[in-house]
Amino acid sequence: MKKLMSSTFRDKVHSLTWRQVFHGMWVALLVGGFIYIIEVLFLVKGIREQSVRTQEQILDLAESPSAASAWMLDNRLADETLQGLLAIEMVLASEIQLRNNSNFSMKKRFGKTQLSSFESNFHRSFEDLAHSERLLHGPDVAVEMYGDDVIGKLIVTFDTHLITRNFVNQIQVSFWTSIIRSLLLAVVLGIVFNRFLTRPILQIGNALKSVNPDDPGIRQVRVPKGHDKGELFFLVERFNRMLVNLDMSRRRLLKLATRDPLTGLPNRALIYEELRANIRRARMSQSVFSIYFLDLDRFKNINDSMGHASGDQLLCLLAKALQNSLPENARVGRLGGDEFVIICELVDDNRQCTELAKSVLATVNQPVILNNVTVETSCSIGIASYPKHGNDVDSLIRHADIAMYHAKSQGVNRYSYFDPVMTEQSEARFKIETQLREAIDKQQFQLFLQPKMSAKNETVVGCEGLIRWSIDNVIISPAEFIPIAEENQMIIPIGYWVIEEACRMIASWSQQNIAIKMSVNVSPIQLQDPRFLKRVSEIVEQYSGVAHYLEFEITESSLMTNLDKVMGLFIELRKLGIKIAIDDFGTGYSSLAYLRQLELDTLKIDRSFVIDIPDDYAIPASILALASQLGLKTVAEGVETHEQLLWLAENGCDVIQGYYYSAPLPRAAFEKKYLKNRRQDHTHSMETAG
């Protein structure tokens, strides 16, 4: 019983009516308090003005007899006058001083009004009214005697404690009046709110409580009596319309809850439910099944270059193709994005798994036409089996996902079976990804420098800035973290750090009268950043004069993503003074067509073609001839032997780079080895560097 009463009390306290009364009371108190403060301020002002007027009247009353007694030196008259002032309650003392400031007569009252500690807090507002004085003037003959008619002054001391007490009494009355007024207002407002708002809302709430959630559109909420128009009528109408829409949405959701809206395939929820059902059946029948985790290769490139509509069209075509090609014991669903899952039952050996994986790859590899453009696709597949690779849905999906990433790391269009070793690799990858996000802030990156030497006279004409990542004095290979950085877009801020660090070094050397060109690699991911040109412009403007010594090396394959955009980008970069080099030339989509269209400065021969010189020099010779015809400079990277150097120099290569001269060095080591005592003017440097 006590618990029920407690619950009922809590319900009432938290009801809208009580909260309205509570909040109304606080609002009324706040407003009343504000008004009260204003009243107090006006009251202070009024009492001060009234006190000053009273004091002036008292001085006016005593001025004439005080002046007469001072002129005639009549002590009796003076005493009578001052004694008469003491009869006034607010006068504490009075005094008549003669012209020479001597005390002629003075009267005091004993028993000053005593204030409480509370009243004393307000005394400061009136304590300046404690003393008032009036000059006393004599007859005209006083002017002849003294030069003016002032013969003395009347000084009256007033009881400001009495003024303070009267003020405190008035504000106390005003305070309690304000409190009572505010409370009454809150109660009246609460009654009004309850009658015209709370009670009708409760009626609407009870009506909504009786609505069947499984079929909300059947029963409509009635409008409370007396509210056929107005806000509550509008609210009920909206509720009824919402119930109808909710019923329609519920029916649509029942249909779509287990289907991917784009492809019509089972979605994540249904895939997980089917996997749980498969696990239950497999446990009972002691059977096995496998899941295939599919991820399309380079799907983001299709989205970026052809648009998301084309990407969606591709997903729909692949979904349909997979459905039509899978055997009866296999089902496909879409997890999201470009990820699909295939569940294949009664697969008990690797041969069957392999055959299905190859069949899926072949299906995905079929060319599709998007916007009149033939697109070839591929995917990476990770395979996990129950119960070998997991006894629950999450572990099977996770292990298949890990196997898929392992397949993707081996190249495109591959499949891979899960192996426990992959978990360690996945954890290592995750650790690198996590640390990578903090590397810039912790200043863990360094720019190593590899010299570029003139093929003619073997003098240093430039260098390439190569990023290195150092954690606890351990250098992590770029081959380990650059692919991860590109995948999670961290390559964009890392790339800007490389560009800014290169500019900082160039500017530092320029202050030492050292003019040397530096090249840095620019990721194709960074070229797709819409802020790329603006950010580069800001960096080179920050380090004035460095742009002409800066060169961007861009891989040949990245040019094919959006050639028109790249062409415009190169033009703007060269306007800034930045040189453009094609890195790894000959490994991608080499063609005279795009070389003639692009604003380029340098072709860089890939190390894979340099390594076989002089035994096999057909491709390097062709590249050198092509560069000569187009008026482009050439750089050979990966030069390691004297024979390679001689052949390249004899066949017109301009610049040599490789371990034959030096491995990439920290800045200090590079400067000590190649820039010590180097001083040359800007013009000579530019002519040599080309």
How would you describe this protein?
The chain has 690 residues and is of the alpha/beta class. The chain has 4 domains: 15-175, Beta-Lactamase (2-Layer Sandwich), CATH 3.30.450; 210-256, no CATH class; 268-418, Alpha-Beta Plaits (2-Layer Sandwich), CATH 3.30.70.270; 433-607 and 664-689, TIM Barrel (Alpha-Beta Barrel), CATH 3.20.20. It is built from 24 helices and 20 strands. Strands 12-13-15-16-17-18-19-20 form an 8-stranded mixed β-barrel, surrounded by 6 helices. Strands 6-7-5-10-11 form a 5-stranded mixed beta sheet, sandwiched between helices. A 4-stranded antiparallel beta sheet has the order 2-1-4-3. Helix 19 (592-597) links the parallel strand 17 and strand 18. The protein is elongated and about 140 Å long. Its cofactor is Mg(2+). The chain crosses the membrane at residues 20-44, 173-193. Residues 195-251 form the HAMP domain. One of its GO terms (biological process) is signal transduction. Keywords: Membrane, Transmembrane, Transmembrane helix.
Helical percent range? 40-55%
Number of domains: 4
Question: Strand content of the residues, in percent?
Answer: 15-25%
CATH uppermost class of the largest domain? Alpha Beta
Could you give the count of β-strands?
A: 20
- Please, what is the average pLDDT? 81
Brief synopsis:
This protein is an alpha/beta fold and 690 residues long. The protein contains 24 helices and 20 strands.
